[in-house]
Each structure stands twice: as C-alpha cells, then as structure tokens.
Amino acid sequence: MIAGVWRPPQRIRHDLPDGQWPDEATARASRWFSPVQLGPLTLEQRTWVPAMVPWRATEEGEVTPEVLGWYERFARGRPGAIVVEATGIRDVPSGPLLRIGHDRFVPGLRELVAVVHEASEGHTRLLVQLIDFLRIRRRPEPAKFFRRFLVLRDAHRAAVPEAKDDAAVREALLAMPPERWAELLDERELEALRFGERERVTDTHLPHVRELPRVLPGLFADAARRAREAGFHGVELHYAHAYTMASFLSRRNTRDDGYGGSVEGRLRLPLEVFARVRAEVGDDYCVGCRFLAHEVIEGGSDVDDAMSFGERFAAAGMDFLSLSRGGKFEDAKPPKVGWAAYPYTGPSGYECMPTVHSDERGPFGRNVEAVARIRGAVRAAGHGTPVVVAGGICSFGQAEAILERGEADLVAAARQTLADPDWFRKVQLGRGHEVRRCKLTNYCEALDQKHAQVTCQLWDREGLDEPDVRLSHDGKRRLVAPRWRE
Ligand SMILES: Cc1cc2nc3c(=O)[nH]c(=O)nc-3n(C[C@H](O)[C@H](O)[C@H](O)COP(=O)(O)O)c2cc1C
Ligand code: SF4
User: Fold this and answer.
1) Is the pLDDT of residue 361 over 50?
2) Same domain, 114 and 259
3) Please, where are the H alpha helices in 342-442?
4) Residue 343: nearest ligand to its CA?
5) Are 382 and 415 contained in the same domain?
6) How many Å lie between the centroid of ligand 2 and the Cα of residue 361?
7) Are 409 and 383 in contact (CB under 8 A)?
C-alpha cells in the first residue's frame, strides 16, 4: 500500500468476490462475451480494458518498444476493446506520456495499432483516449516559493514594514514560522506553497485559460483525425478525473463567459469539442467519451449532473459513454517537496481505484449503482447508447450480473487485466481457475504516482533471467506479465 494515500477509516478488509468460474460453454453463451455495437464499430465482446498510463513513452511523447510491449501483452488476451492511455493532444512536452498533438506522432501510433491487431489476431478493437490538461507545478521548496514564485501584494509588504525593498520582504516572509504563512497568504498562494501551483479552468484572467473554448475543439478534432489516420478504431474523449474537460463539466466551474455555471453552460464546451471531432472524423468513425458518474468532492458534480451529461452526450450522437468515478485534485494530499500533486491520494482517488482496505460497502463495483442510474436516464430519453462501467470489477460473476441486471452494456477491468492480461481468454476457454487474481492493493497505482514504469506486484519479479525479458529502468522488474501458453 502507498504511504500518503487516503483510505476509508473503517479499514475493513474485504475478500475477493466469487472464485467460481464458468465452464467453456457457459462462458461462450454469456453476455460478457457477446458482441456489441458502438455506433459504426462492432466489438466481438463486451470486455473492455480502460485507459492505463504505463509511463513508457519517450520524453517527447513518442511510442517506444516498451509501449508496444505493454499493449501487445493486453492484446494477447483478446478483449473486445482496449483504450490506449491518456494521450496528449497538444504539441508540448509532457514527460513520458504519449502524445498525438502533431502529425509526426502518427507513424509510431500506426505501429502500435499494427502490433495490437497482430497480437489479438484481429479480435480486439483499439481506441485511444484523448486528453488535455492544465499546468501544474511541482511542490516548491519554501525558499524557492518566496524568492521566485510568490507575486508580492501590498498585504505581504504591510506585514513586514521594516523591509526596505521587495527582496527584503521576500526574505522576511521566508523567515517567518509556517503558522504566519497561513495567516498572510491567500488560499491560492498557500496552495501553491503546499501543493505546487495548479491552474484551473476558472482562471479566466489568464489568456490561455480564457481562450480554452476557442482552442480546444480544434485541438481535439486534429488529434481525432490523426487517430483515424493511424488506424485506431475510435477515440475516447477524456472528460473524466482531474483534467481540463472534466473541470468544465464540474459543478465547481463558475466561469461566467457562457462556459460554466448552469449544467447547460458546463456542457457547452464538451459538446462543442464533440461536434468538431464528429465533423472532422465523420459519422462512420467511433467517438465516445469517458466522464465521471460522481466527482466525490465537496461542491462537485454528482449523479444527477452525470445523468444530464449522459443524456446530452447521447443526444449529440456519441457512440459510447464510459463512466469512471472521482480522481480529483481538489481533495488530493500535499505531495512531497519536488513532487507534483497526484489526483488519486484523497477520498475521490479512492473512489476511482478502490482497494480491499475499505468501508462497509467494499471496493467491488462501487460505481455500478450510479452508472445504472445514468444508463437509465439515457434510455428514458430514448437513446440506446452503450454504457461502459469500471471500478473494482475483477470476476466473471460480477461482470455477468451487471449485464444481466441491465446496469451497463460493457464491463471494463483495469487492474485485473494488468494482473493477468490473459484473463479474458482464460475465462472464455473455461480455464478461469488459471486466472492470476488482482489483489486490489494498488502497488501499480503507487508506481503511477511516481511516474515510474507501471508493473504488477504479482509478476514483476518472476523469470527475470528469461531471454528477451525487458526490464524497468532500475533493472529490478520485468515490464510485462510472463507469457501464458494456451
Ligand atoms: C496505473 C493506472 C493508470 C491509469 N491511467 C488512466 C488513464 O490514463 N485514463 C483514465 O481514464 N483512467 C486511468 N486509470 C483508471 C482506470 O482506467 C480505471 O478506471 C480504474 O483503475 C478503476 O478500474 P479497476 O478497478 O478495474 O482498476 C488508470 C488506472 C491505473 C491503475
Ligand atoms: S499491482 Fe497488480 S495485484 Fe496489485 S492492484 Fe495493481 S494490478 Fe492488482
């Protein structure tokens, strides 16, 4: 478990659900392994691997052999669909996160599509998640904050009247005990000191933030066009978690330029982005989005908002709606000095990737009830748009029951698929007893938090001396699960 990550105080340890697996005939006749239509795209199965960032691109955001290896490994399990990790739509450096913000990224992405096609023998459909995010700085040393980052105001100067000039004001502030900082700095300044400065969509005094509604539709549309050129079967617009588009949808979005406030205002940019994307790629290309069933933060959007969002996205012609939960900066814990805040360290982060150390409800299918309501609202409005659910789903029984009850149309599994990329195949062949089961304790999430190459504790020390095993930068872990021979 990770230090510094919020866990429900009840600390109730839950056992993994149903160890019962179907025989081959039952699996083949099941809903989960039956086809589904996402607009123009047919999936062979309702099994879905949601986006997971493995931190394996180059610093320039290019596909690497390690990226290819990661997706190749998932493709061998032949899920209905894999969504490639959050991929940046701008042409700006963003560390080892994949990028699609320029045509030069297309050849690498095309190779990725080819690798997945080959490894799944053409059975898996591949989508890519398109993301925009605002600037976030690392948490600074106090000295750096007071000497360089803090924009001095008269209130700061008045607190140290003896200081001769601004440089002396900065030194005097730095020398104060931290309790005084809490009195003298305003909320945003304190946040910049304790967490690192973080831009918000409501910072409309910043020209590039004010301009987002003008700029983003084109950026998303260009990225979607490149995805199509690279051969992806569809795109997932990232409207979830802590990033720009989710922040527009949030009830905390108080922009007064027509792009905030009411549900209508908050929906405006996400709908405009979708309309531009659709115009760019056409009706015969699969476009959907991932958004939050609930933000799980104070003052944030809840299921009622998400029901409205779902109805409107469906009415606009999205081909699927994928629902996640939480994962926000607003309740994140302060990072260590030199680190950036991570939006999965507070209660909302727990809701996104719940662990077995939980409350009475437990971690399993925590998002299902909310998703069922959202799907109900979409259906009541007359739309058949397929709905994807994720969060703490790691067994055939759970997935099948969700589909049987009509709570969702597709069932996604992230961590269970990382633990055992072949698990869909094993279950389908009636060999579920061979599934390596995810422990839901989030070792992988801890690696993600450090922006380290993501692996799973259940296999990353196994067979390190096998030929052709690719190791992590520190040489201690293998990067993909050992091969399973059918
Ligand atoms: C290492 C890691 C990286 C993730 N990266 C993304 C991402 O890029 N985009 C996204 O929407 N969700 C991301 N998620 C969240 C998962 O898609 C999923 O919603 C979450 O893990 C809950 O599902 P699970 O219980 O099946 O793991 C990530 C999760 C993990 C564990
Ligand atoms: S490290 Fe492996 S077992 Fe642990 S939560 Fe992640 S996927 Fe599951």
Assistant:
1) yes
2) yes
3) 347-352, 368-380, 396-404, 415-419, 423-428
4) 1
5) yes
6) 20
7) no
DSSP β-bridge partners for residue 410: 388
Kindly state whether residues 167 and 238 are assigned to the same domain.
no
How far is the C-alpha of 260 from the C-alpha of 433, rounded, in Å? 50
Is the same domain home to 256 and 147?
Answer: no
- Type of residue at 452: A
CB 248 within 8 A of CB 292: no
Q: Label residue 458 exposed, middle or buried (CB < 10 Å: 0-12, 13-18, 19+).
A: middle
What is the helix (H) or strand (E) element at residue 238, kind and residue range?
strand 234-239
Sign of CA dihedral 154, 156, 158, 163: negative
**Residue 461 maps to a domain:** no
- Nearest ligand for residue 84 CA: 1
> What is the number of the ligand closest to the CA of 421?
2
**Comparing C-alpha atoms, which of 274, 231, 238, 226 is closest to residue 125?**
231
Q: For residue range 31-81, what is the model confidence (pLDDT) as tens digits?
A: 999 999 999 999 999 999 999 999 999 999 999 999 999 999 999 999 999
Pocket flag, ligand 2, residue 438 (CB < 6 Å)? yes
Neighbours of 158 (CB within 10 A): 10
C-alpha–C-alpha distance, residues 454 and 85, integer Å: 12
How many Å apart are CA 64 and CA 55, to the nearest integer?
10
| Token pair listed for 161 | 């009247």
Cα angle 93, 201, 292 (rounded to 5 degrees) comes to 90
CA of 98 relative to ligand 2 center, distance in Å: 22
What is the pLDDT at residue 263?
98
Are 405 and 284 contained in the same domain?
A: yes
**Which residue(s) pair with 49 in the sheet?**
82
What would the pLDDT profile of 262-283 be if each residue is shown by its tens digit? 999 999 999 999 999 999 999 9
CA-nearest residue for atom 23, ligand 1, is 391
Which protein residue's CA is at the shortest distance from atom 29 of ligand 1?
52
**458: nearest Cα among 365, 394, 389, 390:** 394
Identify the three-state secondary structure at position 266. Answer: helix
pLDDT tens-digit readout, 309-343: 999 999 999 999 999 999 999 999 999 999 999 99
Q: Measured from the CA of 415, which atom of ligand 2 is nearest?
A: 7
Q: Count structural domains, the chain.
A: 2
292 lines ligand 1 (CB under 6 A): no
Domain ranges, residue 17: 12-135+203-449
Q: Which atom of ligand 1 is nearest to the CA of 325?
A: 19
**Same domain, yes or no: 158 and 208:** no
Do both 46 and 146 map to the same domain? no
